[in-house]
Write a structure and sequence with these properties.
alpha/beta; 2 domains; 3-stranded mixed β-sheet; 6 strands
């Protein structure tokens, strides 16, 4: 999350908003959205920069508002943020505290990093490994073995049970449908 965003009041004109953007916009993370806040800093709406650029200079911000916006809460999980970005196809989303006060924004590049980390972690879990802190090829052998030990022990035990079951099947006249002369002999 970044605290660098552009916020305006609903009673400002488009001309005032554009002047405000020119003055403070260089410090903003993104200028795709302008956030409308009340006197206490609570998020009221978000307006696309396109709407502002196409509006008449004397028009008030309030007349551009539709009071329909999506925001994240400071208590939301990272995966929830990824889900919200996918669902709403946003470039940036405002983050509000429990009282609705705008405290920052999250941009799509931040969310993509989180999604990549989550996916990597999930892939490590699926492959029976714990997530590595550093590059895989530079990790000490003991650490690699310790991280994979549980999975390797489970595979070894599973292989032993499979071999035992196959041995019992062969001993009880298992018929695979092939003539006895063509079967491979296991030594």
């Amino acid at each position: 999350m970044t605290p660098d965003y552009t916020a305006v009041k609903k009673d400002m004109t488009v001309r005032q908003v554009l002047a405000h953007i020119r003055k403070t916009g260089k410090d903003s993370e993104t200028l795709n959205m302008v956030y409308v806040v009340d006197e206490d800093g609570r998020l009221v709406d978000d307006i696309s920069i396109r709407q502002i650029l196409l509006a008449q200079p004397g028009k008030r911000v309030e007349s551009l508002m539709d009071r329909s916006y999506v925001s994240l809460k400071t208590t939301d999980d990272q995966e929830e943020a990824v889900f919200s970005f996918r669902k709403y196809h946003m470039y940036a989303m405002p983050v509000v505290d429990s009282e609705g006060i705008l405290i920052g924004i999250v941009t799509i590049d931040d969310v993509l990093q989180v999604a990549e980390q989550e996916t990597t972690e999930d892939m490590h879990k699926m492959s029976g490994m714990e997530a590595m802190e550093g590059p895989y090829l530079r990790a000490p052998l003991f650490r690699l073995a310790r991280k994979r030990a549980t999975w390797l022990v489970a595979l070894f035990l599973g292989e032993m049970m499979t071999a035992t079951a196959m041995g019992h099947q062969r001993g009880e006249g298992y018929d695979d449908g092939y003539p006895a002369e063509t079967r491979m002999r296991v030594i």
